[in-house]
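Colleagues,

For the teaching module next term, I've prepared a clean inverse folding example: a structure given as tokens, and then the sequence designed for it. I'd like students to try predicting residues themselves before seeing the answer, so please don't circulate the second half yet.
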């Protein structure tokens, strides 16, 4: 086998890598709960990615790599923020004695290194974790960290997109309701993934208004009701009879397709006559 032949051989192995799947059993609560990362909730996407697998959720190589990179990215940010940001507000745990501190800036009276713990959200079945809360002059700001390409930074500073805005406004709404902490505003902090530096960031910030609170409340009620409807169906025909509207997420792999839901089902998943 010469170099060109091996190149062709290796490319074929790469194809297998990207086509391969791992299957895992989901946490049942993950299916029942509504997570900010799902917003705007899409009944069609939910059905095709959760229900039809009957408890075995697939994850391909590209998705696994993206998820692992995102998890590591947030872990590193939290570690460095805990060491260098005096305004960081949340939960803390001493790595030496195990003592925990809740809803405060970094305590100084402990015996070892303190680990920052994200504030958990569990409000009326809306569940998640807030990346960062900063307490500045007794005002609370929520910050979520994202990566993007360097060329997209200017656009993200102006408008990060409906999906990201809905997620962080949901965190703000739930933080207020669950912990009675008034949120002054929200921010999205974007890093250029190919060359992270302070010169290559974009920051989107807005105050959290009463108008935002009313809008998020209305959206959450709608999405929770929609998800419950989808969970109660037993066949494709029952699901189809719901006549759910397509979602407004431009990245939704179902709603952005021109094909009908029935076409997607037949092409990618189970026979139409099979039960979900």
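(Answer key — instructors only)
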């Amino acid at each position: 086998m010469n170099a060109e032949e091996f190149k062709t051989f290796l490319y074929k192995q790469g194809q297998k890598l990207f086509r391969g799947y791992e299957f895992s059993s989901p946490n049942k609560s993950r299916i029942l709960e509504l997570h900010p990362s799902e917003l705007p909730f899409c009944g069609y996407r939910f059905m095709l990615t959760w229900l039809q697998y009957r408890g075995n959720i697939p994850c391909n190589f590209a998705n696994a790599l993206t998820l692992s990179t995102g998890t590591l990215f947030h872990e590193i940010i939290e570690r460095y923020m805990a060491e260098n940001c005096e305004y960081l507000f949340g939960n803390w745990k001493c790595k030496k004695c195990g003592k925990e501190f809740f809803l405060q800036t970094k305590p100084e009276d402990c015996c070892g290194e303190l680990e920052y713990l994200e504030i958990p959200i569990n409000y009326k079945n809306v569940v998640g974790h807030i990346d960062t809360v900063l307490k500045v002059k007794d005002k609370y700001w929520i910050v979520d960290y994202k990566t993007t390409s360097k060329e997209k930074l200017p656009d993200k500073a102006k408008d990060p997109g409906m999906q990201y805005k809905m997620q962080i406004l949901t965190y703000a709404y739930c933080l207020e309701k669950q912990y009675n902490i008034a949120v002054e505003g929200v921010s999205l902090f974007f890093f250029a993934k190919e060359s992270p530096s302070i010169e290559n960031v974009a920051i989107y910030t807005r105050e959290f208004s009463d108008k935002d609170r009313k809008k998020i409340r209305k959206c959450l009620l709608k999405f929770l009701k929609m998800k419950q409807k989808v969970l109660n169906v037993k066949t494709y025909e029952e699901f189809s009879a719901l006549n759910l509207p397509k979602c407004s997420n431009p990245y939704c792999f179902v709603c952005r397709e021109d094909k009908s839901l029935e076409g997607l089902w037949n092409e990618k998943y189970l026979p139409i006559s099979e039960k979900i």
